[in-house]
């Protein structure tokens, strides 16, 4: 179905001429004519038009009135106003009210065609921008739902404030804290709120990759560069181009790999194992560790220059024991997620059960709490009571 342009003009000869000229120039549009402002407004109440070309002086409803009323009804409407009685004040008034352009009679045909084409092009750009904003918003919601940071404790609010600030830049961030505290959630929140959220978020668990393979994982390798390299492979840095790379447990990286990462950060280039080829990279680097890197530096296990490169901004994630007030919200959050994942009814937790859970020592932090909530949802009553905590949670 063709998009529509509305021509509002009480003189049939003029509206017919405008319709004929523009139809020849823009065959992809349907042109509808209204004989006065009131007729036009009734059409606008029922239909959407890409553009409205309206005379100023008309019976029943003037062009100014039509412009004002329509923009209240449909604020995104685009108007080009025409009049034989135009002057600077009238033109400025129309533009101020929200019209895209103002053209005096007798109409310069070339001027009209140019104005219409420019107005339609602007509409296309506005729609693309709205779609892009919607996609970005949906993407953020999608990412944040999976990696949502839950809680309203002062410690968590402070972290969120820092995330809001650092997400606006490409600054490298070092995230520290104990295992299971949610360091990866912070990394994903930064990526989701950044301008790079349409690019990839590539995670590398440096502790899970053997030291002899970490360089290949990060920078790629060429076929035959070592035993088992049966084909060329892209590294994580290259795969993350345009997005974010998250180096989890960076404190477990070998000194050899640290040197290459430092070079990559300095020169924004990487070289695959077994190749002299240099590949340009455009990535934001986030890193996390549960180790005291300053102590690791003193012991010669971590490069001081790399530490300073990675820690432009430092975020310390507190243990669950430091944010016990967040446990009620976390229980509610995990209960909902687990019931959705497993297709089972959501269970409530009594205040006594929550109080019992808040008294425990959470050495495994958020990760441990999630496992406990899942266990209680499977084995406990509904609602889960303090006796269920005593029976099924061993501390």
Automatic annotation (TrEMBL):
SUPFAM superfamilies noted in UniProt: CheY-like (SSF52172), P-loop containing nucleoside triphosphate hydrolases (SSF52540)
Domain called Sigma-54 factor interaction: residue spans: 149-378
Record-annotated Response regulatory domain positions: 4-120
One GO BP: phosphorelay signal transduction system
One GO MF term: ATP binding
Coiled-coil segments on the chain, per record: 122-149
Keyword terms of this UniProt record: ATP-binding, Coiled coil, DNA-binding, Nucleotide-binding, Phosphoprotein
Family annotation (PANTHER family): TRANSCRIPTIONAL REGULATOR (NTRC FAMILY), TRANSCRIPTIONAL REGULATORY PROTEIN
Chain positions found as 4-aspartylphosphate: 55
Name this protein carries in UniProt: DNA-binding transcriptional response regulator, NtrC family, contains REC, AAA-type ATPase, and a Fis-type DNA-binding domains
């Amino acid at each position: 179905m063709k998009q529509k342009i509305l021509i509002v003009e009480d003189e049939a000869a003029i509206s017919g001429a405008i319709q004929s000229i523009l139809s020849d120039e823009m065959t992809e549009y349907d042109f509808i004519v209204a004989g006065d402002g009131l007729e036009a407004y009734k059409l606008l109440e029922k239909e959407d038009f890409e553009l409205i070309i309206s005379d100023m002086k008309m019976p029943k409803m003037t062009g100014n009135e039509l412009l004002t009323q329509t923009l209240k009804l449909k604020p995104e409407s685009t108007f080009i106003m025409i009049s034989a009685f135009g002057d600077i004040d009238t033109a400025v008034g129309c533009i101020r009210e929200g019209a895209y352009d103002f053209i005096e009679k007798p109409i310069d045909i070339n001027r009209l065609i140019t104005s219409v084409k420019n107005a339609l092009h602007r509409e296309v750009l506005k729609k693309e921008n709205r779609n892009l904003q919607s996609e970005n918003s949906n993407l953020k919601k999608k990412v944040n739902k999976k990696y949502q940071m839950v809680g309203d404790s002062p410690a968590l609010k402070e972290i969120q404030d820092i995330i809001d600030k650092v997400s606006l830049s490409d600054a490298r961030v070092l995230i520290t804290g104990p295992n299971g505290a949610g360091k990866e959630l912070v990394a994903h929140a930064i990526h989701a709120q950044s301008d790079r959220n349409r690019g990839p978020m590539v995670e590398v668990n440096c502790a899970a990759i053997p030291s002899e393979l970490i360089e290949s994982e990060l920078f790629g390798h060429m076929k035959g560069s070592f035993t088992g390299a049966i084909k060329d492979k892209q590294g994580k840095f290259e795969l993350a181009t345009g997005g974010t790379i998250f180096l989890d447990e960076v404190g477990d990286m070998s000194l050899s790999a640290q040197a290459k990462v430092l070079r990559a950060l300095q020169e924004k280039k990487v070289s695959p194992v077994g190749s002299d080829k240099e590949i340009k990279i455009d990535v934001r680097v986030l890193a996390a560790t549960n180790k005291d890197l300053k102590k690791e530096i003193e012991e010669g296990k971590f490069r001081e220059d790399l530490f300073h490169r990675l820690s432009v901004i430092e975020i310390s994630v507190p243990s669950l024991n430091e944010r016990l007030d967040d446990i009620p919200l976390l229980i509610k959050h995990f209960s909902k997620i687990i019931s959705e994942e497993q297709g089972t009814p959501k269970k409530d937790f009594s205040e006594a059960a929550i109080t019992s859970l808040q008294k425990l020592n959470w050495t495994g932090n958020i990760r441990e709490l999630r496992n406990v909530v899942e266990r209680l949802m499977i084995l406990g009553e509904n609602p889960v009571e303090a006796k269920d905590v005593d029976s099924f949670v061993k501390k």
